[in-house]
## 1
Amino acid sequence: MKRKAVIVEDEIHSAGDLKNLIGKYCADVEVLSVAQTVRQAVEVISDVRPDLVFLDVELPDGDGFDVLSNFLDHYFDVIFVTAYDNYALKAIKICALDYLLKPVDKTDLIGAINKVRLADRTSEYRQRTNLFLHNNNQHDIYKQKIALPTMEGLMFVQKDEILYCNANGGYTNFFLRSKEKIVACKPLSYFEQIFDKEHFCRTHQSFLVNLLHVSKYMKGKGGHLVIADGTKIPVSVRMKSDFLDRFEK
């Protein structure tokens, strides 16, 4: 049985290219309609009730987030489509949602749809989408949450609960205020890219620190930090200046 799909894309040629790729390489997906605005998207999705929506981030009368906010009961999967590696893409990555960069590559398209096939829309996927909407409506950056991929599945953690992270090979250890330790299946560099730089700072090759929980900075060649739980974290000579600039701000 084919998955019913809707494309939300204001650029006609981009929508056409995506529809052609889906028709050529994704035999179990059928595109039933294309919408170009938030208003059209809400009408089309309500009418078609698709299994899958390819959702452009930037639209003439708003954005893809405005579309999602109209559907509190997320009965469809979403694959975001964006032309830019910008703040919106960071927000998408933080929630572990699927996305495609324009121009869409067939290999990326197939991979994204394969991940959607494996997703459980009634539990984990819905949690990820709800997390995205929560973050989008939450102006306090520390009250936003992140989806941490672990060996057991996703764990949802509020940012102000994170004390610091440290590298563990291709994994990252997260240390929380609750004294819990979470091992995430992504390298530290991945989280450095998606965390906002005003509040999370790389102080060392192996450490990423939540500035909210820094109690002291102790001088030295590079120096070290004392975190709220008493942990001492090194500051490398190379990263000392950047850390002090951010901490003062």
## 2
Amino acid sequence: MQKIWFITGISSGLGKSLAEKVMESGDFVIGTFRQAAQVEAFNQQNEGRGFALQMEVSKQEEVKNAFKVIEEKFGRLDVLVNNAGIGFLGAIEEASVAEAKDIFETNVFGALQVTQAALPIFRKQRSGHLFQISSGAGMKASAGFGIYNASKFALEGFSEALADEVKPLGITVTIVEPGPFRTQFAGTSIKQADNQIEDYAATVGVFRKRMVEVVNQNQEGDPNKAAKIMVEVARLENPPLRLPLGKIVLNAIQAKLDSVQKDLNEWKEVAASAVF
């Protein structure tokens, strides 16, 4: 049976590649853009294969209206992909609270709003697959990425809990953890702290410069291959809770697991002693 997908943020990057792969597979895409002209162009080019809506995940009324259209026009939803997100570079001390809130509005609260809007449809159907596009940065933090790390850690936290909550209802959750992929993430899609402190030049400053001047457009990840994998995973009876994508992210996650295991081993007796 043809699946109906709802993907946020399909104008570029992984979202665009995924929308194209979904349509190529014979499934139907409902996707979001921020600009009306983008919506019109997509609908003209993909009649019968896809349908676009103008929506920003951080705007609650736009999210509500989008799901009202989905229910009225299509009557069901099989796969939701929370793809829309923002990157951020800056030391923890450099980032203002306003800048951090801006990142969380999209990466956490935006994803939460879309998730909550889709769940009544999934519960009614007793079926549905939710992909949360996190990042390797949602598992392992690094200097210069702290605010972005925090937003993806938060996304992973509520998504992991959600997976347990909805499993008995026939709904599955997959947290996708891409490493560096060759999109505009490290270019036009990333924000930077307005304040830059010289004391962090050797750590955060080096990371910032490397992201913009070296990593951008030289990433190992192929978004088309990632999209193909996600389409295949959506057809599995028992999809994984976590789906790392890329060689670099595999090494990063393993390093995090090794670090946690080291602390557990070294401090196990002390930890166990802190009880009545």
## 3
Amino acid sequence: MVIDALYEIHRTMESHEFRSLKGLRVLVVEDNSISQRLIYTILLQWQVSADLAANGKIAVEMMSANIYDVVLMDIMMPELDGYDATRAIRSLEGQYFRNLPIFAFSATPDPEKIIECSMTGHITKAPMDKVELHQRISMYLK
């Protein structure tokens, strides 16, 4: 299953021209190890510097020590879900945390909760659209 998914990502990547996103720092907040590997593989192919957090609590802690350009936030996770993690990040001191692009990275997000917790938007995780993902995060390359 993982091998098939990685093969499909590789095939899709070859069929579409993606420019390098070298220099972009992304935090991927995802509790599923298979999903972590898939998104990490895609980001590496685009030369993105990516860190992984297994839940929202870890993500909030990582935000205190690192600067990211974009956060891809799963919604349903143990410890602290994506909505509450986003609220916690938005409440941190400084303009950076209020303006940081945080995307709900989920197959079935709640549009009202996305707005209520001040997420930037939604990127579909399953099925993942690599073209959409690239277009959405490339806007934040400095």
